[in-house]
Amino acid sequence: MRVIFGLIILVPIGAAWLQYTLIGLPADPDLAIPTITPADPVGFPVWLSLSHWVNFFFLILIIRSGLSILVDHPRLYWNNGCTPGTDWIRFTSLKKPQDKSWTAKEDARYISPLVGLPGYRHTIGIARAWHFLTVPFFVLNGLVFIILLFCTHQWKRLIPVSWKIIPESWRVFVHYATFNIPTEPNGFYHYNALQQLAYFGVVFILAPLAMLTGMAMSPAIENRFHWYPKIFGNRQSARSIHFLVMIAYVVFIFIHVAMVAATGLVRNMNHIVLGIDSSRHLSGLYIGIGIILATAAFCFLAHWLSWRKPRLLQHLDASINGNLWRITLNHFKPNAYFKKKDISPYFWANGKIPSSEEWRKLAANNFKDYKLRIGGLVNNPVELSLEELKNLGMQQNITMHHCIQGWSGIAEWGGLPISKIVELVKPQATATTVVFYSFGEGLYGGFYYDTNTLDNCLKPQSILAWEMNYEALPPEHGAPLRLRVENQLGYKMVKWISSIEFLETYKNIGKSQGGKNEDDEYFDLLANT
Ligand SMILES: Nc1nc2c(c(=O)[nH]1)N[C@H]1C(S)=C(S)[C@@H](COP(=O)(O)O)O[C@H]1N2
Ligand SMILES: [Mo]
């Protein structure tokens, strides 16, 4: 894989040198400034400068928080099951140990806060808050930009109108690649072919690709529209492409900044900052540097907020994205789709196996003495053994699991639809939240628990599973009983369930955030993305 990427970079450069040494430099690209008609873009209007810098600001936040998300599962794959050893690139020196259990959580890595937002380890909750808080505004800014682009003549800067752009771009590329800087056009009026192509690619290819591959990672979208991630191969290739788009952005930013500096820094900065065509005033340069420094300063503020006001960020994210997903994605109903042959050969595990005496005793006796307590706002509280649960019915689903960390896996899960439990216990009208308590502990101590809306518990494929891949649920995957709610991320699916309660609200449990990870790691209450 790395060889392929190496070739993608080296082959064009090699070809450029070959052409240069064998045939000579192609003619300087045509720079004759065409006579400017009233239909041509002249200069940079304020909206264009603004959206350019706003875009820069958001891009920095998106990339930095994205890197923090990435290292929570620092491996990228082309296969849905994330089988260890099949990663095409990894950002950890560790191989998965063969001789002991190794959870995905243990596999998460540290990233310096200078690079990642917020950086460090196990900070994916806040990293996601930044990522998702930024994205709607990034998209909005992009839309405004594109609309105004087409409402004015400015589109002519970016949109190639002839295929000639390709050979012309190549000519420019041969110049750059062999360090024969061609005469530059005045960007106030138009760009050279390669520049136009690059800007076009960033706006009209990279940005949409980033959004579309991002959406392909949502459990709610994936299990409703199974065809969607397949546009990119599968969910993990969508994740890999999402990463490659980020790399392309970073490479673009470096080359772009270098070229801005190399081809008349003062004049270029006056263009994009102030919209004036002058090489004499330094104000554009100073203001531009000011914007870059302010963005850097915001990164420090973001770091401070991440550590001092994480709850604020979590709630801000919930008030924007949480609400947005509640009224949209959360309505999608999971569709049966996967076949036996799709089952992943490997399935990462997460969480600490319960250490309590109670669970170990139950496990030692094959859970024969296990009793699931179901109570709360119900008319008929019950205690059910595994046997009794099994007698109530069974459903088998083959589904894709989406962990917040980025890994996925396809497995068969067999168990009792929660709708059957609801029929049995008869929740009162006020019961809208279901809490699942675990025998296991959370990463930071205290028992693991999570809540789901009753509505999501009643979606197709929501079950209490005692079977995985047609065998008894193994201890590391949650024996004797675990939850499956397929339109949510993995952390909502409590393993080693001890009891279930129907409630009016999640607010009176734990730290009032709706789950152990929501309490301790600032994960989202609603996990559709
Ligand atoms: N009790 C308990 N349940 C848990 C967890 C945990 O730490 N403790 N981790 C959750 C997370 S983050 C994921 S991704 C899934 C993992 O399920 P698996 O181990 O079967 O892959 O379990 C969820 N349920
Ligand atoms: Mo997870």
Structure description:
- The protein is an alpha+beta fold and 529 residues long.
- It has two domains: 46-91 and 121-161 and 198-327, no CATH class; 334-520, Alpha-Beta Complex (Sulfite Oxidase, Chain A, domain 2).
- The protein is 45% helix and 12% strand.
- The protein has 18 helices and twelve strands.
- It has helices spanning 2-22, 46-70, 104-107, 124-151, 155-158, 165-177, 193-215, 219-222, 227-230, 235-262, 265-274, 283-308, 310-327, 357-364, 386-391, 418-425, 454-457, 516-521; strands at 75-76, 89-90, 371-376, 382-385, 395-402, 408-417, 433-441, 447-453, 463-468, 471-472, 482-484, 497-503.
- The protein has a five-stranded mixed sheet with strand order 4-3-12-7-8.
- The protein binds ligand MTE and molybdenum atom.
- Ligand MTE binds next to strand 7.
Distance between the termini: 28 Å
Can you count the helices? 18
How much strand content do the residues show?
5-15%
Bound small molecules, which ones? ligand MTE, molybdenum atom
* Oligomeric state of the chains present here: single chain
Order of helices and strands: HHEEHHHHHHHHHHHHEEHEEHEEHEEEEH
Mean pLDDT: 96
Number of strands: 12
Strand order of the largest sheet: 4-3-12-7-8
| Poorly predicted spans | none
**Fraction of residues in H or I helices:** 40-55%
Biggest beta sheet attributes: 5 strands, mixed
Q: Which outline best applies?
A: elongated
Sheet/helix structural class: alpha+beta
* Domain unit count: 2
Radius of gyration: 27 Å
